[in-house]
């Protein structure tokens, strides 16, 4: 069986893989809807945003050079459907914010293209892309299990003067979202199964199970 990237030092791998996406996840974790709206209006900013994708290819090369041969990637999810994002624009109702989601779709198309390069350049290199964007019906999540404000999309875990300032559901298994930016254990289990043995177009050109058996 070929070498697997996660046989390498975990802390090093996390730094290597997450570094190219630090800017993307930083803004996402802050749930700044205005950031994505500004990027969508600026061709220069949009190119900079899409520039995250080629870095995944370069990181693959770094991992390959230290022994990794099989790597799984997860693309960007529907950012405009994050309840924490939608909370900044309650008028959306059941819809999602288009600007963040359109940028995620562009990023994902570009990522799929650039990852074909290392597979043709490096002998033995195999990869999987998990289509997180389309894998789960995120639009079904009308409210989070934990939080306050619109869609319960904010302030999960926060207290004000020692008083709990958020609501917490009693049945998280019935929710897609636990809080404004994180899916529930039930949703994560479904996603993990798709990553493990899902078929294209959800997971391809290989899934994780196939990578282990190659």
Shape from CA axes?
globular
| Major sheet attributes | 3 strands, mixed
Tally the helices: what do you get? Answer: 11
**Helix amount:** 40-55%
User: Nearest-angstrom radius of gyration?
Assistant: 18 Å
Strand proportion: 5-15%
Low-confidence stretches at least 5 residues in length (pLDDT < 50)?
1-31
| N- and C-termini, Cα separation | 6 Å
What is the number of domains? 1
Mean pLDDT comes to 79
Task: Assign the structural class, choosing from mainly alpha, mainly beta, alpha/beta, alpha+beta, or little secondary structure.
Answer: mainly alpha
Write the H/E string, N to C: HHHHHEHHHEHEEEEHEH
Strand order of the largest sheet: 1-2-7
Count the beta strands.
7
């Amino acid at each position: 069986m070929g070498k697997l990237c996660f046989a390498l030092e975990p802390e090093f791998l996390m730094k290597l893989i997450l570094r190219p996406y630090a800017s993307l996840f930083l803004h996402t974790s802050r749930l700044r809807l205005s950031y994505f709206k500004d990027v969508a209006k600026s061709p220069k900013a949009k190119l900079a945003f899409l520039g995250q994708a080629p870095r995944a290819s370069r990181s693959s090369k770094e991992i390959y050079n230290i022994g990794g041969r099989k790597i799984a990637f997860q693309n960007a999810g529907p950012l405009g459907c994050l309840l924490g994002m939608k909370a900044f624009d309650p008028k959306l109702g059941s819809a999602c914010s288009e600007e963040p989601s359109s940028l995620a779709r562009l990023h994902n198309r570009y990522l799929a293209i650039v990852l074909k390069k290392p597979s043709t350049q490096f002998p033995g290199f195999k990869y999987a892309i998990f289509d997180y964007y389309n894998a789960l019906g995120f639009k079904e999540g009308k409210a989070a299990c934990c939080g306050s404000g619109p869609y319960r999309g904010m302030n999960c875990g926060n207290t004000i003067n020692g008083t709990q300032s958020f609501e917490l559901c009693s049945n998280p298994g019935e929710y897609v979202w636990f809080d404004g930016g994180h899916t529930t254990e039930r949703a994560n289990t479904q996603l993990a199964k798709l990553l493990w043995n899902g078929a294209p177009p959800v997971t391809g050109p290989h899934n994780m199970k196939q990578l282990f058996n190659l």
